[in-house]
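2024-03-11 09:14:02 DEBUG pipeline.ingest accepted 1 chain
2024-03-11 09:14:02 DEBUG pipeline.ingest length=85
2024-03-11 09:14:03 DEBUG pipeline.predict start
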Amino acid sequence: MPTHKIVIEAPKSTVVANYQSEERTKTQYQSETALEKAFIRLQSQAYEYLPLHTEQELIANLRRQMEKLNAIAFTNDEWKRFYVR
């Protein structure tokens, strides 16, 4: 791992004297299939896999999760004002 001479260091940024990014090859990126499998493996950590196939199913799930998180129930009018496309 290369070391860098730090010029300025702040809570949200760092300036170094010299930086050269590492070259990346195509094999270093995760495929969409591998990413999906990794998400599915999260089920073993108490995440629930939901087979959502449409935008409407996704929006309905968002509403359920927001209501659950906030311990409220949106009326249809409230949801329409809250969820604006």
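2024-03-11 09:14:41 DEBUG pipeline.report Helices lie at 32-41, 55-70, 76-82.
2024-03-11 09:14:41 DEBUG pipeline.predict end
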